[in-house]
Amino acid sequence: MSSHTAATKLGLIGKLLLDGEMICESGLHIGAGKGSLDLGGADNPVVKDAFGRPYVPGSSIRGKLRSLLEHASGAISPSELVFLSRRRGQEVRIHQTDDAGDEICLLFGRNPGRMDRASGDHLDTATATPARLTVYDSPLDLDSITQQMRENLDDELTEVKSENAIDRITCQANARTLERVPAGAKFKVRFVVDILCAEDRELVAKLVEGLRLLEDDALGGGGSRGSGRVRFANWSVNWRSRGYYAAGEAEQAVVEAAAATPDLQAAVLASDFADKLA
């Protein structure tokens, strides 16, 4: 639980930028939600940019981090979940409370107004909490798709994984295909944490906790079937104070080189880390 209170005053102190790589340990499928099927194409294509290159939407990473942190914090009781969407068959519930020190609501933001709880009375929130965390779309590092990999891919940058769904009554196999970015592909990631008060410095550790949880979980579709295992590497962390934007002050390197997420976590949990965000 954060040391924030209802009386905590907010104002931009600076922005913390975490840059690194996300490496696919197994094939990664972030679905495009395509409504039509191209002749000869995969049943479930991956999302691509205007140039036909796969990328990972920031919303996919952000949503997965939030879900993992909610479960890890035990913040998934029905009385603490509110409906973000109540469309039939597409219900979405997220954690939200009125507690001023709730780290998840501080990191990901809190909407004001009346919201339906999964269980119990309505939640009436009078105050909006600005989200501290921004997650950018992650472009594919094209150099990570080697010539040897390209020779074995079904498309220039992606592979097609064939799967079978077995009917439990007839035992008939129904074939389906899943387009994936191959293992070994790398994406460039950037996370930005807005520090709006001294207490916000505590939230950086919560973000890194979510990154470590993600490395032992799965991103995107087909996670329980082997897809979506990722790890992060080659972290650099830079601090841009308010003076950087107002007076052109220099950017400060907080963590210059962290080879893996455990190294990043050790740097963030160090006793002198918070003093660097001033």
Structure description:
The protein has one domain (about 15-275). It is about 20% helix and about 30% strand. The chain has six helices and 13 strands. It has helices at about 60-70, 105-110, 145-150, 205-215, 240-245, 260-270; strands spanning about 15-25, 55, 80-85, 90-95, 115, 125, 135, 140, 160-165, 175-180, 185-195, 230-240, 250-260. Strands 7-11-1-12-13 form a five-stranded antiparallel β-sheet. The longest helix is centred in the N-terminal third of the chain and has 15 residues, at about 60-70.
Relevant terms:
278 residues; alpha+beta; 6 helices
Summary, kept brief:
With 278 residues, this protein is of the alpha+beta class. The chain has one domain (14-276). It has helices spanning 58-72, 103-108, 147-150, 203-215, 242-246, 261-268; strands at 14-24, 55-56, 81-85, 92-95, 113-115, 123-125, 133-135, 138-139, 159-166, 173-180, 186-195, 230-241, 252-260.
The count of β-strands is: 13
Average predicted confidence as pLDDT: 90
Largest beta-sheet details: 5 strands, antiparallel
What is the gyration radius calculated from CA atoms?
A: 21 Å
Give the CA-based shape. globular
Topology:
Blueprint: E1 14-24, E2 55-56, H1 58-72, E3 81-85, E4 92-95, H2 103-108, E5 113-115, E6 123-125, E7 133-135, E8 138-139, H3 147-150, E9 159-166, E10 173-180, E11 186-195, H4 203-215, E12 230-241, H5 242-246, E13 252-260, H6 261-268
Antiparallel strand pairs: 1-11, 1-12, 2-8, 3-4, 5-6, 7-11, 9-10, 12-13
Helix pairs in contact: 1-4, 4-6
